[in-house]
Amino acid sequence: MSTETTNAALFERAQAVIPGGVNSPVRAFRAVGGTPRFIRRAQGAYMVDAEGQRYIDYIGSWGPMILGHGHPAVLDAVQQAATEGFSFGAPTEREVELVEAIIEQVPSVEQLRLVSSGTEAAMSAIRLARGATGRSLLIKFEGCYHGHADALLVKAGSGLATFGHPTSAGVPAEVVQHTMVLEYNNVEQLEEAFALQGADIACVMVEPIAGNMNFVRASVPFMTRLRELCTQHGALLVFDEVMSGFRVALGSAQSLYAELIPGFRPDMSVFGKVIGGGMPLAAFGASRAVMQHLAPLGPVYQAGTLSGNPVATACGLATLREIAKPGFFEALGAKTKRLVDGLVAVGRETGVPLVGDCEGGMFGFFFAEALPQNYKAVMAGGSERFNRFFHAMLDRGVYLAPAMYEAGFVSAAHSDADIAATLEAARAALRAA
Ligand SMILES: Cc1ncc(COP(=O)(O)O)c(C=O)c1O
Fold first, then answer.
1. N or C: which terminal CB in the chain sees fewer CB atoms within 10 Å?
2. How does this polypeptide assemble, per the annotation (predicted)?
3. Is residue 151 part of a domain?
């Protein structure tokens, strides 16, 4: 057991044996500078670091912890499941129960396959879309993240007719030659891409509410046209709801678009985060007609040793049962809105341009005059101010995402007093910054 108790000492020790000291890059605080906090434990809306400092947690493990940390019903379910066995490599009733619970809320999905991470789910969904359509081309949007599969680590080429470029070393250019990257919320580009290559497009993958460029909604005209073009050209519309799924609404972001666009449904959906309640669990699903292409029924191969893990499914199922209770999302959404409205008001009060948006338990705010509509606009400015604000908030016991292009998350465990304390900290931080 270590006797080191400071974050700095732990970070130094970690850097000797783990690249950059972290097991996922954003945790290293590179965007904002400073020393990452090593978390020792968390309860409810709070995390406590190695030095005993307590923070109001607005990352919630980057989305999963919608009930807060250590919810008693979830803890009970996990403890019970763990005593029954960690992993069997054989089917269980609980997997079926979890899939039924997900499908019940998402009418576009008739069948679902469970996997262990969002990356795996998105990657498998693309393979399935390609296998089901017999086409190769994949369209994605700048600023949307769908995990780190090779074909998805790509940025736009110089024009629509040119190939994209890998954004990571180790990804050969040939691997991304079937991926086209377009601007989010740009209907014209979408039209042009389908006019050029419509017959080759297997699928369009989109974060309906993008949480990997802070918080940017797909506009209704953009989503409407995207749906029409996919249908017209026989391409599958894949909603990546790893972040937005069961987080912005019980029916996920697709239920919100279905309210705004008559008859709207995506063809495929990818889930993660909340459906695992903090355990490694994700899923991809579609109609039976599409899912029948997947092994063992069809020729599209996909598998996993820990897929549908019994402890993870217990955690996910207990979480879904809590969030399906009447009034859960109304209360969570109202609380998140109080936070965002409060931040905007504090910006006004302190003379700092600040705008924000939220849905359910997910939010974003920008040091800007208007809400950005695409990645370029998100990245246009405000990073220095954000970094100062981030550290000023951290010093005051509020843990925001350590990069301005990340969304924030509120849980059911955040109290009115937590929101008020956060706004008070923001007022002081903006005055000082
Ligand atoms: C929208 C979206 N898709 C996919 C992923 C990848 O999920 P994971 O980190 O579980 O591999 C993420 C992760 O943040 C995500 O936000």
1. N
2. Homodimer.
3. yes
Which residue has tokens 């406590």? 48
Residue 51 lies in a domain: no
Does residue 82 form part of some domain? yes
Q: Which of 27, 123, 145, 244 has most ligand 1 atoms within 8 Å of CB, for mutation?
A: 145
Q: What is the pLDDT of residues 365-383, one digit of tens each?
A: 999 999 999 999 999 978 8
Whole-number Å distance, alpha carbon 2 to ligand 1 midpoint, is 32
Pairing of strands 39-43, 46-49: antiparallel
pLDDT at 235: 98
Catalytic residue check, 335: no
Q: Residue 114's domain spans which residues?
A: 75-323
Bond from prior residue into 296 cis (ω within 30 degrees of 0): yes
Mutate to test the pocket of ligand 1, among 142, 239, 243 (most ligand atoms within 8 A of CB): 243
- Residues of the chain with confidence (pLDDT) below 50: 1
**369 residue type, one letter:** E
Distance in angstroms (rounded) separating the CA atoms of residues 9 and 188: 52
Atom of ligand 1 nearest to the CA of 272: 10
Distance CA 141, CA 402 (A): 23
The answer as to whether 342 is a domain residue is no
- Read off the pTM: 0.97
**Distance from residue 140's CA to the centre of ligand 1 (Å):** 14
Ramachandran region, residue 422 (left: φ > 0; alpha: ψ -120 to 50; beta: rest): alpha
